[in-house]
Amino acid sequence: MAELEVDVVAADGKVWSGTARQVSAPAADGDIGILAGHTPILSVLREGPVRIVPAGGGAPLAWHVDGGFLSVDDNQVTVVVDAVSEAAAAATSGH
């Protein structure tokens, strides 16, 4: 199964880097979900949660962002955010 290479970067440095099965983010015109093989895209982000489902399993990861942009090209996802904070862990787990 194909995976995504993901980098989440804030102004003060790298937030997270690794492989993922899925990335979801608050695009300016609605939430966007990214899976392997997604069409190349560049999207402005609004305030909201960025969620990542790691490729190796385990609990989904989540951060609250204040805006930024997301780039997808050839299974490489780069999320550049203005400001980031840890989202509530309970918001993405529940299994």
From TrEMBL:
<keyword id="KW-0375">Hydrogen ion transport</keyword>
<keyword id="KW-0472">Membrane</keyword>
<protein>
    <recommendedName>
        <fullName>ATP synthase epsilon chain</fullName>
    </recommendedName>
</protein>
<keyword id="KW-0066">ATP synthesis</keyword>
<comment type="subunit">
    <text>F-type ATPases have 2 components, CF(1) - the catalytic core - and CF(0) - the membrane proton channel. CF(1) has five subunits: alpha(3), beta(3), gamma(1), delta(1), epsilon(1). CF(0) has three main subunits: a, b and c.</text>
</comment>
<comment type="similarity">
    <text>Belongs to the ATPase epsilon chain family.</text>
</comment>
<feature type="domain" description="ATP synthase F1 complex delta/epsilon subunit N-terminal">
    <location>
        <begin position="4"/>
        <end position="83"/>
    </location>
</feature>
<comment type="function">
    <text>Produces ATP from ADP in the presence of a proton gradient across the membrane.</text>
</comment>
<keyword id="KW-0813">Transport</keyword>
<dbReference type="InterPro" id="IPR001469">
    <property type="entry name" value="ATP_synth_F1_dsu/esu"/>
</dbReference>
<keyword id="KW-0406">Ion transport</keyword>
<keyword id="KW-0139">CF(1)</keyword>
<dbReference type="Pfam" id="PF02823">
    <property type="entry name" value="ATP-synt_DE_N"/>
</dbReference>
<keyword id="KW-1003">Cell membrane</keyword>
<dbReference type="InterPro" id="IPR036771">
    <property type="entry name" value="ATPsynth_dsu/esu_N"/>
</dbReference>
<dbReference type="InterPro" id="IPR020546">
    <property type="entry name" value="ATP_synth_F1_dsu/esu_N"/>
</dbReference>
